[in-house]
Amino acid sequence: MALSLAKLADCVITIPCEMRTSKQPMGSLFEQSSLLLTDSLVLCLMAQQAETSQSMTVRHADLE
Known about the structure:
By secondary structure, the protein is mainly alpha-helical. The chain has helices spanning 5-8, 28-48, 53-57.
């Protein structure tokens, strides 16, 4: 029996975005909404953990 990720997760976040009414192509609206959400979560975690952009840069991987 396969378990879905939602069943394994402690928290599930639904990103409501009506792509049918968007003028943006394909999934762009969802992708932008996801990016804003994750950026906001990172900023909240940084504040809770007393992290700065400089302290995180040390552990950042540059894949270029």
